[in-house]
Design goal:
The chain is α/β, with parallel strands linked by helices and about 230 residues long. Helices cover about 45% and strands about 20% of the residues. The chain has helices spanning about 35-45, 50-65, 110-140, 180-195, 200-210, 210-220; strands at about 5-10, 20, 25-30, 75-80, 80-90, 95-100, 105, 150, 160, 165-170. The two termini are about 30 Å apart.
Amino acid sequence: MDIPYRVNRSRKRKKTIALQISDRAELIIRAPYFTPMDEISRFVAEKQNWIEKAVQKQRDRVAAEANRQFATGETFYYLGEPYPLNVFFDPLAAEGVAINNPCLDLNAPDHRALKKHYLVRWYREKAKTIIRERVDFFSAMLKLPYGKVKITSAQKRWGSCSARNDLSFSFRLVMTPPPVIDYVVVHELSHIKHKNHSAMFWKQVEQVIPEHRKLRRWLKDHHDQFNL
């Protein structure tokens, strides 16, 4: 597979060349400013097998999202549990999403973008409550005060910690099981003390989440289940 790519050069990047697959399944090469093109081409050739698999996986994800109709019977996840969607429109009731076991009820007109909007809004509201509670719990346990907590729409990053110790989490995190949520929260809180992935960082994570390796692998293996 001959995959075209574009090169983003940066004076801030000192040594390493990095690969990125964009949301549109485009290959981006990030390289130090003065890296010769021959070196970049060799790097891409060495990573060709990984690139082909990653690009195809992203293309499949984009296609799956495009095929989502937000219709009755489609499956959506909440706290790791699958819920079939039940779509209807009652103009006399409030529009939006509610859990009505074993389904997610969605009251909305038959408009794809609007139905998606209500689902995203519901997930974001749940994420604000659940993730903030877990952040506060583990922040107190670890004695690691944080700045702000932000809920994002990130597709590839489950969480991040800024230089100011502000924490960001994708709303999609509440689609995953509670132990996974706890792992991601502890991971980002641990970056308040360790701004890297050093041995000390992982030691701190492991003290709270002994099964963190298994949970990291689970996230990688199931990532594509939690897209809208």
